[in-house]
Specification:
41% helix, 3 helices, alpha+beta, Alpha-Beta Plaits, 5-stranded mixed β-sheet, single chain
């Protein structure tokens, strides 16, 4: 299926498991499914960490690896965007 033929819900179904299994030390990741959107043929995937990553490099390295894994295995064009940590949002 072509990237643009998918719905945000279908994209969420494809990437949810990858996000759920990814951790960076004790930080878990959460997929903000309501904010997934297609922009210029690339699905924007908003990810939020369970807490503020410190140091940042391993966190962003893990997001880059996750992005590549999802693209390779699911065959869709995606870009991960990192949002505010869950503990800053009262979630």
């Amino acid at each position: 299926m072509e990237t643009a033929e998918l719905t945000p819900s279908e994209v969420a179904d494809k990437v949810r498991g990858y996000v759920a299994k990814t951790t960076v030390g004790d930080i878990t990741l959460w997929l903000d499914e309501t904010r997934i959107k297609l922009q210029h043929e690339i699905w924007r995937i908003p990810i939020r960490p369970s807490r503020e990553p410190n140091p940042l490099f391993p966190y962003y390295d893990a997001l880059a690896d996750l992005e590549q894994e999802m693209q390779d295995k699911e065959g869709i064009n995606i870009s991960i965007s990192s949002g505010d940590p869950l503990n800053l949002q009262g979630v």
